[in-house]
Specification:
heterodimer; A: mainly alpha; about 0% strand; B: mainly alpha; two-stranded antiparallel ribbon; 17 helices; rod-shaped; mitochondrion (chain B); transit peptide (chain B)
Chain lengths: ~675, ~325
């Protein structure tokens, strides 16, 4: 790598030399390191004939950061749609084939990492040997135990830094008892710690665990507007009255605005809303000023408070904003995002205020983030019923966002694409979906797709929309591109694809879809299998296709059989039996078809009339009257009304002996005679 | 059919068409006109429904008082004067009765105090200018309104000339704003269309029924009333929607952008944790080997490319060089 880079430099130099003079022998042959140091000055050329040469522009020195070369290389690599994502080991056994496997493999990898780190940090004395040159700090054990002993402010600071809630509180109390005053700054940082974690220890494996973002289900996204979990609030931690934070706050001899602010923020985070608002009044009474973060927390507190009408809440929020303006506190992006987030709970009342807030934001020059648009979309498309008129605001938003690149500004930024795609799906607008997808692929925006389940949701909706509205060739191209390298389809997605194939009359692709379905773990989904069988069995097709379908049906049959082996009460759906039998018949697998007929009895399912007709046709074609009689027997065993028709057909089309005719008449009389005693007569059948 | 329609529509119409501060001539006029063709007099109930706060007006009479209110708001702060002006004007309005011959409207007595107060709860400045019936409105900002404005100016204890000019200015403003906003599909959402096109009216009733009854709802009307066809023109015309329109008007651009002297404080725990959360938003699994190497380089586990031979402190020092034992 180094050699190539330096070669480039040398090349440049050589070219320059060439244009200047004819002599370039010695200079370029020199050790490249000298040029490589980045100097942009030209070496002196002795005896050069400099007259009649163009002006040479010395380029400015470029500085590259340490990952520049790697980034350049990474930008040349595109996604391989036939390969598994890079995060997985490239081994057939370790490549996931379903979303469940995918998730568990990634978790396994991460947990291995965490386990290793845990061991190293628990037993640091065994891991002291450091052979890396230069030293790699992040591979060395970390120290989580406080080192400073004794009672002093430095010890307190250390415990605060290590996030030891209990130990810090104890240290603080000890200091107070010993009579030392704790500085305001340290007290404030202690308050910060207590308020952020709600007077609980940070979660035990705080250092090892990934972010605690809760997983939302798709439907829950619409219903669950409680984004308290998202705000970093540890689920279940509520603010207890008279906890350590309040106690220490009361003990502090002097409090500045930071103290009040952090208390208010802590209270709001842990849902002690009334206390937060009261504390704010106290803050004002002490002639102190709140900062913008505190105001954001107060807005949230106002919006979440119960037992108030929406207009009152909104008015209070407006008042808070006016106070902000009066105290010359500059609002930030979070201010407006918090307002919009809270407005979602106001349902349709919140629409107009939301737009006004958005315009205010733009008017004072704060650039909205993806989370802003996400909240607006949620507000306008909450309980979407496309039969009534829908808001058109999504088109506005997409026009606004065209071509923009984003950087993370709000923890909810990764919710945008999923909501946008959901709206596209509801509105059934493919153009809009393409726009959203285009935005996703702009620059680095793809990183905002969010965690696994959100990505799956997005792509499932996108692909379903494609199946519904796009031409089949394009859809199949997307299918090859996205599945399985980007997401694993759910069985419903596959059913949608099958229906698209049906509409486009491309049923020959079905066996391939079945193979893929098995691969993605949907081989045991009854709905999917029935859909496949139904589409294959519905019409007659040219012989080769029929054979292919029969093979596919045989495969499906084997899945049913293996299911049977595992269950105590085997249960094949009646439709499946019907379809498989028909497909075998048409595909030329007569023997197996007859075996299927036998299975009807076994599973206590009734064969369809058309099926029996087809069997009759097949018997006729092979000129086998015995088979024909079998069919009639079967029909009578099930007491099917068609039995008589079948019997007549047999007598008409087949050359049968007199005894057989007699038997047939018996059979038909059995079925047509509702009062007949079936026990006595069945014994007489041949 | 028509009377029934007119009975229904006034109740429903105003919800999709929130009224602007200071003036709602068109809906008021339109609605009143709707109710009036057979000389029906609007009942008290209908009037109360739409009587908003000091900014919102529903019928002609209120409309006269509201501009005054608006103006009074300009002169004094909102909160303190709200109650007072309302009480004053209430008394004044109570005695007023205006009959406008061209519109063939017979307005009733103004709502009494009790009901007014109950409606005070609605927010004031949030109502958008209704975007409908532009033609009729042009006419309506004619003699009737001027006469009305003059009448109000006479009655009120403030400076008559100023009051009148203020009122007229407000009305003109609102008319201009509403004119500017009408385009494309919006013209469709006019009062006459609503009468003629029952479908729209029906869908509006369906919508209203889902809302809580005791709260007055406000929406951006045109957003919700679009039929199935979305033409490009429509999209373009609505493009302005999200950006144009009223804002909260609480913050001032200049005040916000001026550089206040910021005290440098170390980032608190809140800031640090927030920054960590933000970093996680963008996290995605690595896509290829190069990205993995980038990650390692950033963590310090991998040498930088191009290799820098002088990186890191040298560990070779005098005392660590092995010395051969003297033989």
């Amino acid at each position: 790598m180094a050699a190539v880079a330096s070669g480039l430099y040398v090349g440049v130099r050589c070219r320059l030399c060439l244009t200047l003079t004819g002599q370039w022998t010695g200079l370029c042959g020199k050790a490249p390191s000298r040029f490589y140091s980045g100097s942009a000055t030209l070496p002196k050329i002795e005896g050069a004939n400099v007259t009649g040469i163009e002006e040479v522009v010395i380029p400015k020195k470029k500085t590259w950061d340490k990952v520049a070369v790697l980034q350049a290389l990474a930008s040349t690599v595109n996604r391989d749609s036939t390969a598994a994502p890079y995060a997985f080991q490239d081994d057939p056994y370790l490549i996931p084939t379903s979303s469940v496997e995918s998730r568990s493999f990634l978790l396994a990898k991460k947990s291995g990492e965490n386990a290793a780190k845990f061991i190293i940090n628990s037993h640091p004395k065994y891991f002291q040997k450091d052979t890396a040159e230069p030293h790699i700090p992040c591979l060395m054990p970390e120290y989580f135990e406080p080192q400073i002993e004794g009672i002093s402010e430095a010890a307190l600071k250390e415990r605060i830094k290590l996030k030891k809630v209990r130990a810090s509180v104890d240290m603080f109390d000890q200091l107070l008892q010993a009579g030392t005053t704790v500085s305001l700054e340290t007290s404030n940082s202690l308050l910060d710690l207590l308020c952020y974690y709600g007077d609980q220890e940070p979660s035990a494996d705080n250092h090892f665990q990934q972010s605690e973002k809760s997983e939302e289900l798709e439907e829950a996204i619409e219903e669950n507007n409680e984004k308290s979990k998202k705000a970093g609030h540890q689920f279940g931690v509520t603010w207890r009255a008279k906890n350590n934070a309040e106690r220490i706050f009361a003990l502090m001899p002097e409090k500045n605005s930071h103290s009040y602010c952090t208390m208010i923020r802590g209270m709001v985070k842990h849902r002690a809303l009334v206390q937060a608002l009261n504390l704010y009044t106290e803050l004002l009474n002490n002639r102190l000023h709140a900062d913008v973060y505190t105001f954001n927390a107060l807005i949230e507190a106002t919006a979440l408070s119960m037992n108030e009408k929406l207009e009152d809440k909104w008015n209070k929020i407006l008042e808070l904003l006016k106070e902000m303006a009066a105290q010359k506190v500059k609002p930030n992006l979070q201010t407006f995002n918090t307002i919009l987030k809270c407005l979602r709970r106001f349902y349709s009342f919140g629409r107009l205020p939301a737009l006004q807030t958005f315009r205010e934001m733009k008017a004072i020059g704060i650039e909205p983030s993806l989370a802003t648009y996400h909240y607006i979309i949620q507000l306008f498309y909450q309980h979407e019923n496309p039969s009534k008129g829908s808001s058109l605001i999504i088109y506005d938003i997409m026009n606004e966002l065209k071509g923009k690149k984003f950087s993370p500004k709000d923890p909810d930024d990764d919710m945008f694409f999923q909501s946008a795609m959901r709206v596209c799906s509801v509105l059934r607008d493919l153009e809009l979906a393409y726009q959203v997808h285009g935005l996703l692929n702009t620059g680095d925006n793809w990183k905002f797709i969010g965690p696994d389940h959100r990505r799956n949701f997005y792509y499932s909706k996108f692909f379903s929309l494609l199946c519904l509205m796009e031409q089949i060739d394009v859809t199949l191209k997307w299918y090859k591109d996205l599945i399985p390298s980007v997401f694993f389809p759910r069985s419903q997605t596959l059913i949608d694809l099958l229906q698209a194939l049906d509409v486009a009359n491309r049923l020959e692709v079905i066996p391939e879809i079945w193979k893929d379905s098995k691969e993605y773990g949907h081989g045991f989904r009854d709905a999917l299998k029935e859909e496949i069988l139904m589409l294959m069995a519905r019409d007659r097709h040219p012989p080769e296709l029929q054979v292919a379908f029969a093979d596919c049906a045989a495969d499906i049959r084997s899945t049913y059989e293996s299911q049977d082996a595992r269950q105590t009460a085997p249960d094949w759906p009646a439709n499946a039996l019907n379809y498989i039998a028909v497909l075998f018949l048409r595909g030329g697998r007569i023997q197996e078809a007859w075996k299927m007929l036998g299975l009807f009895r076994k599973h206590n399912k009734i064969p369809g009339n058309e099926l029996l007709d087809e069997f009759m046709d097949s018997a006729k074609a092979s000129n086998n009257p015995a088979q024909a009689i079998e069919i009639v027997k079967l029909a009578s065993a099930f007491s099917l009304p068609v039995c008589e028709g079948l019997a007549q057909r047999v007598m008409a089309d087949f050359a049968i002996s007199q005894e057989q005719k007699e038997a047939l008449r018996d059979l038909t009389s059995l079925t047509s005679d509702s009062d007949s005693d079936s026990d006595s007569d069945i014994g007489e059948g041949k | 059919m028509f009377p029934r329609v007119s009975a229904i529509i006034p109740l429903r119409l105003l919800s999709p068409f929130p009224l602007c501060p200071g003036g709602s001539e068109a809906p008021a006029a339109a609605i009143v006109r709707l109710g009036a063709p057979h000389g029906t007099v609007r009942t008290k109930n209908e009037v109360h429904r739409y009587f908003g706060t000091n900014n919102v007006i529903c019928n002609k009479k209120d409309e006269q008082s509201a501009p005054t209110r608006d103006m009074s708001k300009e002169t004094e702060t909102q909160e303190s004067v709200k109650e007072n002006t309302k009480k004053d004007l209430l008394g004044i309005i109570k005695g007023m009765r205006v009959e406008l011959s061209t519109a063939k409207v017979q307005t009733t007595r103004p709502p009494n105090r009790r009901q007014l107060k109950s409606i005070e709860a609605t927010t004031g400045r949030l109502h958008k200018v209704p975007e409908d019936a532009p033609k009729k409105r042009t006419k309506s900002l004619g003699p009737e309104l001027v006469a009305a404005a003059a009448a109000v100016a006479d009655v009120l204890p403030f400076d008559k000339q100023m009051t009148k000019s203020e009122l007229l200015r407000q009305l003109q403003q609102h008319e201009e704003v509403s004119k500017a906003q009408k385009d494309g599909e919006r013209a469709k959402i006019s009062v006459s269309n609503i009468i003629s096109d029952m479908k729209i009216a029906k869908s509006s009733t369906a919508r209203v029924s889902t809302r809580p009854v005791h709260q007055i709802q406000f929406d951006e009307g045109s957003n919700d009333y679009v039929g199935q066809k979305k033409t490009n023109d429509l999209k373009k015309s609505l493009r302005k929607n999200i950006l144009k329109g009223k804002r909260l008007n609480i913050f001032d651009l200049k005040a916000v952008t001026e550089e206040a002297p910021e005290t440098e404080t170390a980032p608190s725990l809140w800031d640090v944790e927030f920054a960590k959360q933000l970093a996680e938003v963008n996290e995605q699994p690595l896509q290829n080997g190069f990205e993995e190497m980038i990650q390692w380089t950033k963590e310090g586990k991998l040498w930088e490319f191009p290799i820098n031979n002088e990186a890191g402190p040298t560990s070779i020092s005098a005392h660590s060089i092995k010395r051969l034992p003297n033989l």
